[in-house]
Design goal:
By secondary structure, this protein is an alpha+beta fold. It contains 5 helices and 6 strands; from the N terminus they run βαβββααββαα. It is globular.
Length: 178
């Protein structure tokens, strides 16, 4: 029986809760997370099947003061795993959880994390979109190069989908907060 496994599964920057649920399901099947090597490529090792809650946090200040940040979560029973592309990964046995316990004390703190994600991830993407993608699309329309026009159009659509998805999830969370 093999002792390690890797899977490919993509999550957007707003799907941190879905990613945690996916990792929980893997651990229930007997595969605990050991690392992430590239976006979407997860590495697991065999373990006894167990219900373990995985949660992700995005907090640059926490990464700047790593020892205190990790200790704060450890004091609440969360095991720190590693950081990957700005997110810190934590896990805790479901049997040690208090009802709907979360690393976020409420929806407002979850919204604050989403705003940190927006500032560090979406603003640079918006800058690239407005100063590279849009001008490139208009340039390729006038040059009439079919390959570049198709590439620029696909990139434009990808950005629109990404921005729409982020906005939709942000609005949904904002409504939950009230």
């Amino acid at each position: 029986m093999r002792q390690s496994l890797w899977t490919f599964k993509l999550f957007t920057i707003m799907e941190f809760e879905e990613e945690g649920a996916y990792l929980r399901q893997q651990q229930k099947k007997g595969w605990k997370l050991t690392g992430i090597r590239f976006p979407g490529i997860y590495f697991f090792e065999r373990c006894d099947p167990m219900d373990v809650i995985y949660q992700l946090d995005y907090n640059k200040e926490g990464r700047d003061h790593k020892a205190n940040y990790v200790q704060m979560f450890a004091d609440c029973g969360w095991e720190y795993l590693f950081d990957y592309v700005g997110y810190s990964y934590f896990r805790k046995k479901a049997t040690e959880m208090n009802e709907n316990e979360s690393i976020y004390c409420d929806d407002l703190s979850r919204l604050e994390m989403v705003e940190r994600i927006f500032k560090s991830r979406m603003i640079p993407l918006l800058i690239i979109f407005f100063f590279v993608v849009l001008p490139g699309l208009f340039l390729h329309v006038t040059v009439k190069n079919p390959f570049l026009l198709i590439f620029s159009s696909a990139l434009f659509l990808l950005y629109i989908v990404l921005f729409s998805h982020f906005a939709s999830q942000y609005i949904h969370l904002k409504k939950r907060v009230g």
